[in-house]
Prior knowledge:
heterodimer, A: 268 residues, mainly alpha, MetI-like fold, 15 helices, 0% strand, globular, B: 292 residues, two-stranded antiparallel ribbon, 1% strand, disordered C terminus
Amino acid sequence: xxxxxxxxxxxxxxxxxxxxxxxxxLTSLRTLPEIVAAPAWPLxxxxxxxxxxxxxxxxxxxxxxLNTTVMAVAIAxxxxxxxxxAGYALAKLHFVGKKVAFALVxxxxxxxxxxxxxxxxxxxxxxGLVNTFAALVLPFGVxxxxxxxVRQALLSVPDEMIEAARLDGASELRxxxxxxxxxxxxxxxxxFLFSFVFHYNDYFWPLVMTTxxxxxxxxxxxxxxREQGTGVRWHIVMAGNVILSLPxxxxxxxxQKQILRAVTARVG
Amino acid sequence: MKPKRPLxxxxxxxxxxxxxxxxxxxxxxxxxxxxxxxxxxxxxPEWVGTANYGQLLASGELWGTIGRTLSYSVVVVVTSxxxxxxxxxxxxxxxxxxxxxRGAVFSAYVVSWVAVALLWMWILDADGGLLSTLxxxxxxxxxxxxxxxxVALYTLAAVSVWKITGYSMVIFLAGLQDIPRSLHEAAALxxxxxxxxxxxxxxxxxxxxxxxxxxxxxxxxFQAFDVVRVMTQGGPVKSTTVFVYxxxxxxxxxxRVGRASAMTVAFFVLLLGLTALQLGSWRLGRTGARxx
Lengths: 268, 292
């Protein structure tokens, strides 16, 4: 009885969360006449890739995918590159103003992009930086959370190890990037994945900072598929949706553990 | 440790300080400044004192927006928390099937808001959508999910719940891992049934996870934008114009930077309030866990 109940629950939950994806994929494999005639049921008689062909001709998918991936990778790498020396100074070095510096980094956790986008937009406009790659990447060059997590991870590295490397004549930058970075690999991998997925998916910032095809990203283009033209052609929109979400779902399936680690990491 | 050269720490922090200064602190200062000006980004800004704030209060826009954002957020947080807890308890079992379903629920959290919003627009579509078709086939007249001002905000909330329930589920699952088996066994030996074991063992141990998830998802749902922009554009008749969407509209539709900045200041103050709540509840959660 108990077992039967938990089985039923399992099926209901699976239907609720897997069902919509299945519906998305099924729709994308149909043709317009099929959807108009019988939108929900029955299953398509044969698999049609028309919708995907139409998406590929309607928008330069390759170009947008490249823009999105390069942007997300650049942001994630920059965050790690800058968090390492900053975290090292905050965790290991004594200097005047350390407490204040750390407090200021933490304070940035309270300032989301939704608060800064209006002034940043009005700042970058006159500089001619709206509609550039820089406007997409630089504002996210530092992750306050990332800096914090790197600092926390470095606290547990024994000082003796750094002293020994210094005695061996290693420069400070070599210690940071050559010795400490490899030791922090799990933390850095989680940070990278978390940041990559967030910015790959991001709609808000690219929407307000770009109008040009040259720098626009895939989420914007897919959202536009619905707004274009007369009458929504859902099979095309769903094909766009599949193209947008498949890379992230594949990445998730491949490195689920690291992504979960990043999500369940907490401040405090 | 002593730095190798006295200036090293400052050099290491310089790039971080530059980015944080340019893109966090300076914009924050600009928002405050701009909120006292009228500015359309084309002509020079004009000082108007507190007129922007006065307008927001007098027109009722501020309270209306706060009300809508709060309604949306409370529904999202309470429902996703309850569902996430239930799913964590039900799916915390060994086996590939359970792992797959856990992964499926969480995958919605990983996928783009755009994809989720578009997918649900199609499911909710009045003509051919899956839900409307299902409703009709069992003889219910489907609601106009996104076109009815009384319903649209809650439709958006439901879609958001579908997307973020996986988040609270994984936090609760992590919390469940931290509960020692021996506690459950001891309680079972004392004759505690499943309900009293949940109330006296599981829930006290999960309290810190619950307050963490509750406050982080409250703050995140306060910043909702994508789902609104894609599904309703703030409509019908403003019924889904939540905070960030209102700010966006002021800047990009009405070209009113001053009004948008005043709105942003109010938004920021509210976020600070919520964060204070968060810090408070963490402290409560911690002492609660210690007592248990």
